[in-house]
Amino acid sequence: MLIFGALIPLNATQEGAQGGGTPLRSVEYLELSEAMQGQDLDSALTLGQRAMETLTASDSVGVKTRVLNNLGDIYLTKADFDMALDFFLQAKKNNEILMESDPENQSLWLVEAGIHVRIGILHFRLHDYESSLIDY
Questions:
Q1: 51: Cβ–Cβ under 8 A, 6 or more apart, which residues?
Q2: pLDDT-based confidence at 77, cuts 50/70/90?
């Protein structure tokens, strides 16, 4: 199965589509998914799901948070609000784990703020303006 035409097969490797190279890592699928969001949501979703499937113990919690946030963004764009909220809340939980271990890390606070903004936008799109303003 190919994603967005003949560009990237789902079984892609770093050395080619069918070659014996190293399989793509979750972060590489994530970056491809992020790049496709403005062009082809279905391909972005497939790549985001592949990023989630290929997460390993060696991937950082931060990478998992990015993957979850990315999937939330895709579902939000597709107006699947339940799925989007689920992924945003998972991303928030992962980011909070990171914040507990490094509370002075300003980057983590920015990620947390971004997640809150996304959840606020989701509530706004659901016409739940009070939750949009108060909770996020």
A1: 26, 27, 29, 30, 33, 67, 70
A2: very high
Helical axes 81-101 vs 61-77, angle rounded to 10°: 160
Q: What is the pLDDT of residues 99-113, one digit of tens each?
A: 999 999 999 999 999
Those residues whose C-beta lies under 8 Å from the C-beta of residue 50, and which sit 6 or more positions away, are 10, 24, 26, 29, 33
Beta-carbon contacts of 26 under 8 Å, excluding residues fewer than 6 positions away, are 50, 51, 52, 53, 54, 55, 56, 59, 63, 67
3-class SS letters over 111-131: HHHHHHHHHHHHHHHCCCHHH
Single-letter code of the amino acid located at 110 = L
Q: Which residues contact 95 (CB under 8 A, 6 or more apart)?
A: 65, 108, 111, 112, 115
Confidence check: pLDDT of 24 > 70: yes
